[in-house]
Amino acid sequence: MGWTEKASTLVSAGVAVLIMLTPGWLYAERLEAVEGQACYRYGDKETPVQAKEEALALARKNAVENHRVFIDSTSTVKDFQLEKDLVEAVSVGTLTQIKILTQKEEGREVCLSISGMINPGQTEDLIEQRTKAKEIVKAAQSEEVSPRSAFALKLSVNKSNGRYEEGEELIIYLQSESDGYLKLDYFQADGKVVHLVPNLFRGQAKIEKGKQYTFGGVMSAERFTIDGPFGDELIKVFVSPQPIPEIFESNELIEDSGTHLQTMKMKLRGVRVQANAAVSLRTSQKGLTPSQKPTLSQN
Fold this sequence. Notes:
By secondary structure, the chain is of the alpha+beta class. It has 2 domains: 5-133, Thiol Ester Dehydrase, Chain A (Roll); 140-284, Immunoglobulin-like (Sandwich), CATH 2.60.40.2550. 23% of the residues lie in helices and 37% in strands. The protein has 5 helices and 18 strands. Strands 7, 10, 11, 12, 15, 16 and 17 form a 7-stranded mixed beta sheet that branches. A hairpin with a 4-residue loop joins strand 10 and strand 11 (192-197). Helix 1 crosses helix 3 (80-93) and helix 3 (80-93) crosses helix 4 (120-140). The longest helix has 21 residues, at 120-140. The chain is elongated and about 65 Å long. The two termini are 35 Å apart. Residues 1-27 have low confidence and may be disordered.
């Protein structure tokens, strides 16, 4: 489309939400060469083709880890899992024009060395975005915005491990032990929050105790399909005895997560939220774009 656009994964009442991100041409002239290498030893249940794919993925990550921008940008990251996630995100999101320089197979071991181009500005932005999103997910589960529940509120999704790939369908299940008004939010990996219920297209949702509610799927008014941005995400639900806009009034379908959480902290003071629950998700890109697929070096 000429712009780097991402459909928000969330289609409510037949309306697809588009989030405008930074136009790709701003990064076009800022590419730097990187190289990486890795070996992978495969087992009895794996094929040489699978081993090559694993070795390539490891070489991509090695190239990213050794790049100056990644080293500088993650120097203050103390969370091992976050650093691992950042390596994977950058290797998939910003490493392009990959060429396989050497390939060696000996017994059950496949070794590759590669070259590629990485975008420093885009890499810095992606690392900042993912680090912020991780902090937002943590903040959304803090006691300040997650007061102790007065009764059980069951929240689950259609994949028990919470891991979704691009294009997969997300279905949300909810059951409450008490009547109340529902607020359902989706915290995205780009630091945005999407208000699922209530929102601009769907009004108040008063739920009844003991009844299971489903959001998404063929029988629901909403259809949720996983798309970028990818990473750590969170579904958050509140049940209140009073209509939600009186507590969290918002005229935006999508807004900054940090701003939204600050608003919640202020408006939750003195308000009796009966129950809350959350489910963490990990979303990822499926496959590589044409510019990310490797080619054999002609040298």
